[in-house]
């Protein structure tokens, strides 16, 4: 292939491999082909696929620095390095059946992920399966790359793959037959080799191997290790000569393999493996396998011995095989931003609805339709793509997709993937794939009616025939622009009575595109009224969710994140375009902490694209000066232009927009119509309008827009007012507006927006040295808002706070020092450094007393410190003392909240509920939903204690909705939901939210803060090694902890869970632990009840 070097990823110190392609390969294979294939692997994100860290060509600086080792323009790939080497090397040593099974499942898991995204490996072999330690895992590599490294002998340059492992269709070059079964055949060869020591066919030479794989019967399987019954039959299904007689999905093969016995691990194996973790696949015992009866024949009879093996079961829940984005190498090259798939964030309710609908389609074997509606840029296609990929990788359904502006007939023909040539050849191929006789009259009818006549009945008939094997998703993009697809959908729905098939139709609708399309709107109304129809309307993502989209690909520091949201708002499309622009301009720089930061001030940097600028320039030159001023006024208002606001601003500017102005922009491709007016097609169009307009006019137009908004008091108006004042260079007024908007958004619970506004006015103040004290106060507020949003302070905050305290003391700014001490004390509490926190907060109290300032915040935070240190009585007394300094209702609410929660933990639940209810009422009256939700969560804790689990779960979920809308990360709520779900007996919901806690906090923090959650998961899953470790942690953490209530409750839930599993001994120990913890908590009665439960178990089984 070329030169290969070992290296280290600088940001993470992770071992990597650098591969440089040699000139001979590049001479044979165009760079465009290599680039496409490298991108195919780089675009995959799965624990069983090797991560590509970077790729590209050597630039002039790199070539010069290499001292001749690398030439200018030489192609290279950087990928993570497997410490264990290849499976090929591992097979030189003895292996066990358990090892074989788990490696095969790992490869099938990776293949399921790749195949669902249209990537066929084409070169599965032991050399392309790499072993990794910590955790132990086997991963696929070299997707379509290795076959370019052939040495060219015996015509191998024309062959895609390695002959010993190639499927018959690869030898024949039958590209129309390439698909998942092609890779599964190669894996069958690998499986054969793992148990016998050799590949199935040992002929020498390409032609001899081609003949053997295509024509020769398989030799007897002479296994060198102990294998279970059923393995030989399984591997022979992989090695069927026809791709249509093999497993059709990796999930099908994995399901059958997973049912084979594990036997006993062979002690001769020098490697042990943990239990396999199937990330994309998953089933449970309650799932019913969807094995349909053989398809009925119209004419002719198919050979009943032919056809694919039955499909795997339909998974009951998409969550069984969903996984977090892998990205083990934080700080991947920014060049991969457009290549790696973004993680679908939020939309859980919509995902549940889609999955439940297609599950209902599978059970009823009747067609259903879902209309997915949203304006452009809201994520319809992303959600639909996720849905299709989940179905494919789990083997739950086949997919036919009609892309934007594609004919449905072309989509069906593409799905058929037939060879060229005469119709007879196409008929034979199609008959073989569908498992029907070649005389079936539908075959010719489909080909004639789809290719030429475009008859809706033919497309519907083929789709229904495909659904005979397993459910089928018929997905139509932008149906408002595809009237041909409407006819096909109508025919599928009309044929329910005569031909019932599990077809699920997903029709995506751009609501902006429905303007002036009365016929489509009428069709949608009629379809939505169908008894088997559902409608999903997508709400906008929150600011937190939009940043999560970006951060699934590229980790940005807080400053870059805020700059991104300030510029792009919550439009995920605009956010993505902006990050792409930053990457292209070289404005993002990877730091040592593995995150990217901006190296320029993007608020003043130009981001317009030259091609859009030229198109915009051309369009503006065709307009007169008045019309150009009208377009500038629209650009000032934003990317999306409200017709009413635009008219108001034009009136203030004494301008009038003629009726043909916007249509001319639409015709030029620079604007699109929307429900409330119109929008610029792309952010760069708006940027170009500013760039091509005189700066004085831009400033004046922003001033007029600000005047238009100045009398409004709503948050949206305040945010826009601050923006317009800044762009008009009215900096003092902009600071006041940002400050006001920050305080209002914080009070309303929109913490991310509060952070944005605080950072905005902090950036303005930083430009004025004479306002340094104001800037430092803004920094403190930003720090506290970030802590409130994330639930913790960033690690670097300690140094910042210490510097602010020192600077304030030096400059004699006591007010700044006072507030900095309060914030630093809170930081130390957050870090569990109780004594240091008390000292700092007492220093702030002394400084406040000296200057006659209100001490409420310092005293209340001192009470918080006592609380988290487990000093409940001191905390209670200090909260009561804080009441003496209360000035506002939100201060009073904080004190009631603190007193109420202390009483809850002291076991005075009736009084606790009174204080908490009062606190919530005060926060509600102040319009502070985030604080009200925090109190409501505490009231739900009381409901959980009283075993009103459904009531508690409802409240927790309501609080979670508020937290998500605010942009705040909420691990504690997921902890509470998980524990309550386990208590209720809903183990699946408990594990789901436990995993969310783990993703947010990481294993170390979860073990330290919430050990009861992974303990409950370990008990539910029978992971006894983790169980024993976590029981010890729980015992240690529970002594004098503020979490005694949660730990006692969890121990009792644990006991019931173990008893339900039939594990009486562990249940007995858990009841004993729960009894001791309840007594320590002060609830002697409940402790005794748990001890009686333990005695009951002894009486039932004295052993």
Arithmetic mean of pLDDT: 83
> Number of helix segments?
48
Strand count, sense and barrel status of the largest sheet are: 5 strands, parallel
By CATH reckoning, the class of the domain at 2-258 would read Mainly Alpha
Query: What's the architecture of the domain at 2-258, going by CATH?
Result: Orthogonal Bundle
State the helicity in percent bands: 55-70%
The portion of residues forming beta strands comes to 5-15%
Radius of gyration, in angstroms, nearest whole number: 33 Å
Number of strands: 17
Question: What is the CATH superfamily label of the domain at 2-258?
Answer: Transferase(Phosphotransferase) domain 1
> Within the largest sheet, what's the order of strands?
9-10-11-8-12
Main structural class: alpha/beta
Uncertain stretches of 5 or more adjacent residues: 146-158, 265-276, 284-304, 321-330
- Assembly context of the chains: single chain
What is the distance, rounded to the nearest whole angstrom, between the alpha carbons of the first and last residues? 66 Å
CATH topological fold name of the domain at 2-258: Transferase(Phosphotransferase), domain 1
What is the global morphology? Answer: globular
Organism: Microvenator marinus
InterPro entries: Kinase-like_dom_sf, P-loop_NTPase, Prot_kinase_dom, TPR-like_helical_dom_sf, TPR_rpt
Keywords: ATP-binding, Kinase, Nucleotide-binding, Transferase
Domain Protein kinase: 1-260
């Amino acid at each position: 292939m070329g030169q290969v070097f070992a290296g280290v990823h600088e940001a993470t110190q992770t071992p990597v491999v650098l591969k440089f392609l040699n000139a001979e390969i590049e001479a044979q294979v165009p760079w465009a082909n290599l680039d496409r294939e490298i991108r195919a692997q780089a675009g995959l994100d799965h624990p069983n696929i090797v991560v590509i860290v970077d790729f590209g060509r050597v630039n002039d600086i790199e070539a010069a620095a290499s001292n001749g080792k690398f030439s200018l323009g030489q192609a290279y790939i950087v990928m993570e390095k497997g410490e264990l080497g290849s499976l090929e090397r591992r097979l030189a040593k003895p292996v066990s059946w358990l090892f074989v099974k788990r490696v095969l499942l790992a490869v099938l898991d990776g293949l399921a992920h790749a195949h669902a995204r249209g990537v066929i490996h084409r070169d599965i072999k032991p050399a392309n399966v790499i072993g990794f330690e910590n955790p132990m895992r086997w991963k696929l590599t070299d997707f379509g790359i290795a076959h370019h490294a052939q040495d060219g002998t015996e015509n191998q340059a024309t062959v895609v793959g390695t002959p010993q492992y190639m499927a018959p269709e690869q030898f024949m070059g039958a590209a129309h037959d390439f698909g998942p079964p092609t890779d599964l055949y190669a894996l069958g060869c690998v499986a054969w080799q793992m148990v016998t020591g050799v590949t199935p066919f040992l002929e020498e030479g390409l032609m001899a191997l081609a003949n053997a794989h295509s024509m020769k019967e398989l030799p007897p399987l002479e296994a060198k290790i102990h294998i279970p019954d059923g393995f030989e039959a399984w591997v022979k299904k992989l090695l069927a000569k026809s791709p249509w007689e093999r497993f059709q999905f990796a999930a099908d093969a994995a399901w059958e393999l997973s049912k084979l016995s594990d036997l006993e691990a062979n002690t001769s194996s020098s490697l042990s493996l943990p239990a396999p973790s199937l990330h994309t696949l998953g089933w449970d015992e309650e799932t019913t396998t969807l094995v349909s009866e053989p398809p009925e024949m119209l004419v002719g009879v198919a050979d009943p011995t032919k056809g694919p093996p039955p499909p795997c079961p339909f998974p009951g829940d998409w969550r069984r095989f969903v996984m977090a984005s892998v990205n083990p190498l934080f700080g991947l090259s920014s060049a991969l931003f457009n290549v790696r798939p973004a993680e679908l964030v939020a939309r859980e309710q919509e995902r549940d609805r889609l999955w439940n609908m297609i599950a209902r389609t599978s059970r009823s074997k009747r067609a259903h339709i879902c209309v997915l509606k949203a304006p452009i840029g809201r994520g319809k296609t992303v959600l639909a793509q996720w849905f299709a990929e989940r179905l494919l990788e789990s083997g739950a359904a086949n997919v036919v997709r009609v892309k934007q502006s594609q004919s449905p007939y072309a989509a069906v023909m593409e799905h058929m993937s037939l060879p060229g040539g005469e119709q007879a050849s196409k008929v034979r191929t199609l008959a073989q794939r569908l498992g029907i006789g070649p005389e079936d009259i539908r075959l010719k009818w489909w080909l004639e009616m789809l290719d030429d006549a475009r008859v809706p009945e033919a497309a519907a008939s083929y789709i229904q025939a495909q659904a005979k094997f397993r459910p089928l998703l018929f997905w139509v993009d932008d149906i408002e622009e595809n009237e041909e697809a409407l006819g096909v959908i109508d025919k599928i729905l009309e044929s329910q009575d005569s031909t019932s098939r599990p077809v699920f139709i997903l029709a995506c609708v751009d609501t902006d595109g429905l303007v002036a399309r009365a016929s489509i709107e009428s069709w949608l109304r009629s379809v939505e009224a169908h008894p088997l129809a559902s409608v999903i309307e997508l709400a906008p993502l929150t600011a937190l969710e939009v940043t999560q989209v970006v951060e699934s690909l590229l980790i940005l520091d807080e400053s870059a994140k805020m700059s991104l949201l300030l510029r792009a708002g919550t439009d995920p499309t605009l956010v993505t375009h902006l990050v792409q622009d930053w990457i292209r301009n070289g404005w993002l720089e990877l730091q040592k902490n593995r995150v990217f930061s901006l190296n320029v001030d993007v608020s003043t940097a130009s981001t317009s694209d030259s091609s859009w600028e030229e198109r915009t320039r051309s369009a503006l030159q065709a307009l007169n000066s008045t019309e150009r001023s009208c377009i500038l006024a629209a650009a000032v208002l934003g990317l999306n232009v409200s017709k009413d606001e635009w008219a108001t601003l034009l009136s203030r500017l004494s301008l009038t927009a003629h009726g043909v102005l916007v249509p001319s922009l639409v015709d030029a491709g620079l604007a699109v119509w929307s429900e409330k007016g119109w929008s610029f097609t792309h952010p760069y169009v708006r940027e170009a309008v500013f760039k091509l307009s005189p700066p004085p006019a831009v400033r004046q137009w922003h001033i007029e827009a600000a005047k238009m908004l100045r009398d409004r008091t709503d948050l949206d108006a305040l945010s826009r007012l601050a923006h317009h004042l800044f762009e008009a260079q009215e900096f003092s007024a902009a600071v006041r507006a940002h400050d006001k908007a920050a305080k209002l958004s914080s009070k309303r619970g929109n913490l991310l927006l509060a952070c944005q506004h605080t950072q905005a006015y902090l950036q303005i103040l930083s430009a004025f040295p004479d306002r340094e004290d104001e800037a430092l106060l803004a920094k403190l507020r930003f720090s506290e808002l970030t802590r409130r949003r994330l639930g913790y302070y960033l690690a670097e905050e300690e140094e910042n706070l210490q510097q602010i305290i020192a600077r304030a003391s030096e400059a004699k700014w006591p007010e700044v020092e006072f507030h900095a001490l309060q914030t630093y004390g809170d930081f130390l509490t957050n870090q569990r450094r109780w004594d240091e926190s008390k000292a700092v907060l007492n220093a702030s109290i002394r400084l406040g007393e000296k200057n006659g300032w209100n001490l409420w915040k310092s005293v209340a935070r001192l009470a918080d410190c006592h609380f988290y240190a487990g000093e409940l009585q001191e905390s209670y007394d200090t909260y009561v003392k804080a009441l003496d300094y209360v000035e506002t209702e939100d201060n009073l609410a904080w004190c009631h909240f603190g007193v109420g929660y202390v009483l809850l933990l002291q076991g005075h639940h009736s009084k606790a509920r009174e204080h908490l209810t009062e606190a919530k009422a005060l926060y509600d009256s102040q319009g502070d939903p985030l604080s009200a939700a925090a109190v409501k969560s505490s009231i739900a804790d009381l409901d959980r204690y009283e075993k009103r689990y459904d009531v508690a779960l409802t409240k927790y979920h309501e609080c979670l909705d508020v937290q998500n809308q605010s942009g705040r990360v909420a691990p504690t709520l997921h902890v509470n939901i998980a524990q309550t779900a386990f208590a209720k007996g809903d183990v699946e919901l408990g594990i789901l939210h436990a995993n969310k806690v783990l993703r947010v906090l990481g294993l170390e923090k979860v073990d330290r803060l919430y050990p009861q959650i992974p303990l409950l998961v370990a008990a539910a899953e029978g992971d006894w090694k983790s169980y024993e470790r976590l029981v010890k942690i729980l015992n240690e953490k529970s002594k004098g902890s503020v979490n005694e209530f949660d730990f006692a409750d969890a121990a009792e839930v644990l006991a019931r869970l173990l008893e339900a599993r039939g594990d009486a001994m562990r249940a007995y120990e858990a009841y004993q632990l729960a009894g001791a913890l309840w007594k320590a908590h002060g609830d002697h009665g409940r402790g005794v009840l748990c001890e009686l439960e333990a005695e009951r178990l002894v009486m039932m089984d004295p052993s």
